[in-house]
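Hey L., structure's done. Input below.
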Amino acid sequence: MIQLLAASPFFTSWFQSDLLGKGIYVALYFLSVLSWSLLIYKGWIFFIAKKNSEHFNLFFKNQRKEWLHIDYDTVRRVREVNPFYSLYRLLQSEIGKRGEKTPPSPAEIESIHAFLMTGVASETKRLEKNLFILSTTVSLAPFLGLLGTVWGILTTFSDLSLLSHGSQETMLSGLSLALCTTVIGLIDAIPALVGYSILKNKALDFELEMERFSQEMVLRIGRAPC
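Output:
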């Protein structure tokens, strides 16, 4: 294992770099760990949200009577994110404030629908929380790689001008820094860009599903007494 690390150009370049070069490496590695951790975490959150919402949606569709008084926690103890159930709880609280058993008026239905749309926006924002880190990585990582490239070339030319006082190994370390930081910057940015696009599209699709679910609840309110 140690021999493999020693043979790696990134490992060698790290030890041959100066203080600024090491700082650029640390920043790039930090961005890589942060973006991959967020990608995995957000991917899991979207998976759980989709799974739980589909389960509640199926359960909701099977409720014909007393559908406004579902005690879902007794059916399935959900402690994870469940946007559909969160919207349903919002509807319950809003209907509970009215304290009426008669069907709401068209103006009240419109008010309830607007209230649910606010809830949809809130749930979407919750799903998209911290995705800005990925977009920041997409923009920042290539520039850090470019900084490493420029600094590596600069140190190389500096060593060339002082070649009589420096070794060829010292000169080549600048080129190694230039190439390795460029590669790492792209390795950071490309997965972050792909992951950000996928997660944003998933959030948009999920927002549309939440809007359809909210509309279905509003239609039920208009058809039956609360």
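Residues 1-7 have pLDDT under 50 and may be disordered. The two ends are 67 Å apart (CA to CA).

-- N.
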